[in-house]
Amino acid sequence: MALINSVLSWLMKQRIHQMELFMKYPHEVQFDWFIQLLNQAKNTEWGRIYDFKSLKRPEEFKARVPLNDYETMKPYILRLRKGEQNILWPSEIKWFAKSSGTTCEKSKFIPVSEEALEECHFKGGKDLLSIYFNNHPDALLFDGKGIAMGGSSQVTEINAESFYYEGDLSAIIIQNLPFWVEFRRTPNLSIALMDEWENKIEKMAVATINHDVTSASGVPSWTLLLFRRVLEITGKSNILEVWPRFELFIHGGVNFVPYREQFNQLLPSPKVNYLETYNASEGFFGIQDRDRADDMLLMLDYGIYYEFLPIDQLGSDHPETLSLEKVETGVNYALVISTNAGLWRYLIGDTVTFTTLNPYRIKISGRTRSFINAFGEEVIMDNAEKALAVACEKCQAIVSEYTAGPVYFDQEKRGAHEWLIEFEQEPGDLGFFINTLDNALKSLNSDYEAKRYHDMILGEPIIRVMPKNTFYSWLKSKGKLGGQNKVPRLSNDRKYIEEILGMQKPM
Questions:
Q1: No. of helices (H) and no. of strands (E), the chain
Q2: Which of these, 27, 138, 228, 258, is most buried using a 10 Å CB contact count?
Q3: In the chain, what are the domains?
Q4: pLDDT tens digits, 286-327
């Protein structure tokens, strides 16, 4: 195994040189991909509608092709799912990544082309390993096995000769992994792709206990469930007693800050490393390239052309996006992508901020629809996560899940924000926790601070401590266990809060 580890790690590190090139020439690389994407799609239905053949510059592209979201592209995607081809992208589309997002009730089905699998998602997976081995030359990752918290997929028949696959992106990736990766992964596919998550966690725990597991990847909340079940079965006090050579957790999908302390307790060693990725159904966008950093390198050669829409332009009649060379650090941008799966000027719903411009590194700051702005306070997810982190640190508390939304004015009370929080470790003084959270939000958001002035518009936050497994039960009731499903953090209405409170039995 040591020989295999040495050979594979050497191969991975050869990619570092190519990354250095796009870091050195980011604008040239992005322009090359802009031209390639248009050339490849010029004879598709979409390419003919917008005359891609005549487009030579990004400015022309922006002027001619409108911004899109899932709803505007949905009619074309539905046709693809019925078996039509050459609509958005020239190669055959047979894979659709099922994504529920954080606020959408119905599933989205994102087309995944062969090019997107190879040039984007697989490349991203290989690159994160390249970065890890470059930063940790003595790593022994391939000496053991890796756990991947995959989703599920299914085959849908269109007619006697045609079919397509749909499922979580993780399931699509796992089913198409090269043999050498499959050799180092656990559990087997029959378990990894199960769609009933409670039974799946049980079977994964049993199947992986006796392996030499050195890494895991997945959404933090579902990985914690697996780790805790492993400890229940084995009677051990932490994961390193079960898998002593465990060295890496690869995470993404949600902010890791609220989960970090729980992982530190389960993996109590400074030798365990954490690596964040930005891998969505629509594409693989970023990889943490520096140890203990809270940002990610924007990956520029994955068949994606990026634009960035200043958040104050959202909803305007003539929104003006910026190309990479015009972005600034510290500004909140909605991410816009054109991809080698046929998404054109597509708003994926995430917002990012740049932390460095040489090279370009980003942080996910929130969702375009995940915010509270009922009173002009404009609280975004980044504000909420940072304020919670401050409150938890000062109060020795650990938050496992939460959601928040507005409490509206009425004749008897002023407005407020209501937080439903499930604690792994409750604060000793809830009043102090509330005060600390409130003050942290004031320091992070001047609009919130203004609305809280003398309690004139907003009162102090209302926090309701929820019983253990509240959010798990809520997701289960909606058929949204596992995969891409996650608890919506912030909402600009009370729908989720009322649903969750409605599940609580009266005392």
A1: 20, 20
A2: 258
A3: 1-57+88-302 (3.40.50), 371-502 (3.30.300)
A4: 999 999 999 999 999 999 999 999 988 887 888 999 999 999
